[in-house]
Amino acid sequence: MNHSDNGGETMIDVNEITQQMSDLDEAALLQSLAEVINAGPESALAALQACQAGLEQVGKRFETQEYFLSDLIYAGELMTDAAALLKPALAEAGTATLGKLVICTVKGDIHDIGKNIVVTMLGAAGFDVIDLGVDVAPEVIVQTAIDNDVKIIGLSSVLTLAVDSIQATVDAFVAAGLRDQVKIIIGGNPVSATVCEKTGADAWAHNPQDGVTICRGWAS
Ligand code: B12
Fold first, then answer.
1. Residue nearest to atom 22 of ligand 1 (CA)
2. Residue 202: CATH number of its domain
3. What pTM was computed for the model?
4. Collapsing DSSP states into helix, strand and coil, what is residue 21?
5. What percent of the chain has pLDDT over 90?
6. Pocket of ligand 1 (CB under 6 A)
7. Does 20 share its domain with 87?
8. What CATH code is carried by the domain that includes residue 51?
9. At residue 2, does pLDDT exceed 70?
10. N or C end of the chain: which has fewer CB within 10 A?
């Protein structure tokens, strides 16, 4: 990785990190991240965001059929590793603890690559994430929120049909008398402003970083 010495401060070239993630060049990426960590905690957040930008490029390369499904899964694993590596540095840089959050893929849907990326990003941002996995029934989500006193719920739906499960989950919070005590954010391909309004969720996002920004706003 290129460095430039700026009055004793090491400058990290985050564009290289983005490129390495985009190219799925694990060895180079891990080397760059090690250098970021050695240089001190200041650049950890920028490095994490660079990884995410690279991941978005991976998504585009998948859409244009340059990459295959296996590449997508590999990229998700790389992102998880990168976030785990950077986590101590992020904590040292003073990323605040933002409290608990429950997230899952809704009932009837087993897609979790996107959800796992969001989990990683939320964890790196400072949330204590309770990940319930995939195909999760509304009553399980409500009960987990009650048991852990959680105020923010993230729902992922990749199948268009599973949008009904978002609705059912929002309804389950209404039925439990908790709807005004929790904030619900939804994400995944079929999700939109219209779906958000129709299901009665509080917010929606496609981009994990936007999702993190919204949740951070709610937490503070
Ligand atoms: C990988 C994949 C699978 C894998 C899933 C592996 C896994 N562990 O997830 C397997 C092979 C198991 C699979 C199965 C099926 N699949 Co599939 N699958 C895909 C594929 C190729 C990629 C999805 C993906 O991971 N994208 C990459 C991630 C990173 O993107 P993402 O999920 O959108 O997530 C991002 C954002 O949406 C957002 N986000 C996601 N969740 C959340 C949550 C919050 C809170 C926030 C803020 C943001 C957020 O952030 C993420 C990161 O950027 C898509 C096709 C495609 N090109 O998208 C089809 C696709 C989603 N599958 C589809 C179908 C139909 C199925 C099956 C029903 C097939 C079948 N007949 O059996 C089954 C589903 C069974 C079930 N009950 O769920 C259809 C869905 C059609 C529709 N509109 O409903 C698609 C679109 C394929 C197609 N063109 O027909 N699938």
1. 69
2. 3.40.50.280
3. 0.84
4. helix
5. 67
6. 59, 69, 72, 108-115, 117-118, 154, 156, 158-161, 185-190, 205-206, 208, 211
7. yes
8. 1.10.1240.10
9. no
10. C
The 10s digit of each residue's pLDDT in 41-77 is 888 888 988 998 898 899 999 999 999 999 999 998 8
Which range marks the domain in which residue 183 is found?
Answer: 99-219
Q: Are the C-beta atoms of residues 160 and 190 closer than 8 Å to each other?
A: yes
Answer yes or no: are the C-beta atoms of 83 and 123 closer than 8 Å.
yes
The separation between CA 43 and the C-alpha centre of its own chain, rounded to angstroms, equals: 19
| Sequential DSSP letters for 72-134 | HHHHHHHHHHHHHHHHHHHHHTTPPP-EEEEEEEBTT----HHHHHHHHHHHHHTEEEEE--S
Per the CB < 8 A criterion, the answer to whether 12 and 51 are in contact is no
Between strands 3-6 and 9-12, the pairing is: antiparallel
User: How many CA atoms lie less than 13 Å away from 59 in the CB half-sphere?
Assistant: 15
Distance 61 CA to ligand 1 centre (A): 16
Pocket test for ligand 1, best of 111, 129, 195 (most atoms within 8 A of CB): 111
DSSP 8-state secondary structure symbol assigned to residue 136 = B
- Measured CA to CA, the distance from residue 58 to residue 63 in angstroms comes to 9
Residue 125, both tokens: 């941002």
| Nearest atom in ligand 1 to 109's CA | 78
Among protein residues, the one whose CA lies closest to atom 91 of ligand 1: 111
Structure-token pair, residue 91: 């904590």
Q: Residue 217 corresponds to which tokens in the numbers above?
A: 């706003």
Structure tokens of 203? 């917010």
